[in-house]
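Worked example 3. Consider a protein that binds flavin-adenine dinucleotide.
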Amino acid sequence: MTPIDQSNYTVAVIGAGPAGLYAARQLAAQGVQVILLNRDIKPGGLAEYGIYYNKYKMKAGLRKQFRQIMEIPEIHYYGNVMVGEACDLKLDDLSAIGVQAIMVSVGAQGTKWLGLPGEDLKGVYHAKDIVYHYNKLPPYSTRDFYIGRRVALIGVGNVMVDIAHWVIRDLKVDEVIAVARRGPVEVKFTKKEMEYVARNLDLRALDVEMGRVAERMRDVGQDPEAAKAFLLAALPKAEEPISDTHFRFDFLASPTRILGDSEGRVCGLEVEDTKLVPKDGDTKARGLGTKRVLDVETVVFCIGDKVDDDFGLPVQWNEFVKNPEPSFPVDGISYEVYNHETEEPLEGIFVAGWSREASSGLVGVARKDGESGAKAMLEYLQTVRPSTDPGRVLASLDGLLAKCGKRIVHKEDVLRLEAIEEAEAQRLGLEVYKMKTNEEMLEAIGVE
Ligand SMILES: Cc1cc2nc3c(=O)[nH]c(=O)nc-3n(C[C@H](O)[C@H](O)[C@H](O)COP(=O)(O)OP(=O)(O)OC[C@H]3O[C@@H](n4cnc5c(N)ncnc54)[C@H](O)[C@@H]3O)c2cc1C
Ligand SMILES: NC(=O)c1ccc[n+]([C@@H]2O[C@H](COP(=O)([O-])OP(=O)(O)OC[C@H]3O[C@@H](n4cnc5c(N)ncnc54)[C@H](OP(=O)(O)O)[C@@H]3O)[C@@H](O)[C@H]2O)c1
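Given these inputs, the predicted complex is written out as structure tokens:
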């Protein structure tokens, strides 16, 4: 890229998760003034509020990197600010005050329900709400979750393993059933993550289950023995079990209905047996018409998330729509938002991280995506006149935010809050201490 003087540009990055933070750093490194707006008081997104709470070392390392990014003078942090239609700020407000480009890196905040009967029963949850709960993100931190003795987890990715980890090791429930619409070959979790729960696998139940689905696997050329070996691969390095929970899989089973009792609580999950059908080098699940009921009291959907439909950008197939013919592609990827109905690009608006591709990849992937999105934005800025007075844009933003009557959280507030929480953790002899409500956090950092 040709170096240009970017110091008279002011852009907004919405969302201070990994994608937004690394995008902001990349932009600031070119001298761009970055307004970093974040729904949560603290930065970090799912690195703070998604990654399993006791991965202390990993989370501390990420927090340290995020703190360094927050200290960059060109980055202006505005936490506790919700952007979107009917929120504290709309996208149009940002353009109106002279922001020259917008990076949307708000993750995937929508909930992907399947539309099954019984999804509104007590005891049906989406994984995201639970991981926000045990990671203490307000308001989920103080919400009650009714977790029964027998729990069905729908989906077999790493998020399912995180929820299994919580219900097996923290809640010590009796039984956990991971329900997969496809088979053992198509599981998405990694061996490493399974190490937390592998010793709770009910090996007899696994044998029975493998026997039940073996023929349907062989029908599409799969090797049941090799698949079983992967399911058990975590055992040698697995953590010692600390509960008697029986953990089992129910493969080739697609949820069709959640059954409730007279008090509106879950009392069963109906599934339809499926078979595998080859498709484009992969497989698809096809219903066989036969149904069974799993005896469970809680159902948690661990099937990935979608973007927020009400954010104010065009959405199609659970994602913000990207320009199919981008002007500033990076590695062939489009970071530019597009209105598929009018077939027009939304000029100057970019997406990165889970806002570009929902529920896909690790922190490192979100980081690279944020940086690539920033590269696309920097290319775009070269086509825009550097006429903005950054001080004026920031003053207009302060004026707008003052009208919404909320306590805006700045970078020095976050530092103060982190120091207070660290001191409290030390006092209590804990690895980490987190305040559970926004009110507590705001009170701790004081009024402006
Ligand atoms: C349960 C779970 C566990 C995971 N564990 C791991 C792991 O162990 N290791 C690993 O590498 N990866 C893990 N990941 C993946 C990793 O967390 C993601 O890849 C990464 O956080 C995505 O980054 P992002 O910035 O795109 O989105 P997010 O991290 O979701 O960040 C989005 C940010 O946008 C803000 N925001 C949302 N809406 C708005 C709005 N309307 N206005 C303003 N701000 C808004 C939020 O406050 C948040 O700060 C896990 C993911 C999940 C769900
Ligand atoms: N510790 C870690 O490193 C960690 C922890 C958590 C998350 N993550 C990462 O975060 C990302 C998201 O993880 P994830 O577990 O949410 O997603 P994922 O890996 O894509 O798994 C989603 C699961 O849900 C199933 N599913 C999706 N739609 C379904 C439907 N309509 N009906 C039934 N089942 C359905 C999928 O089955 P099909 O395969 O049949 O579609 C799959 O088993 C991944 O990249 C993951 O690695 C990492």
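Take a moment to read the result before moving on. The mean pLDDT is 96. The longest helix spans residues 363-381.
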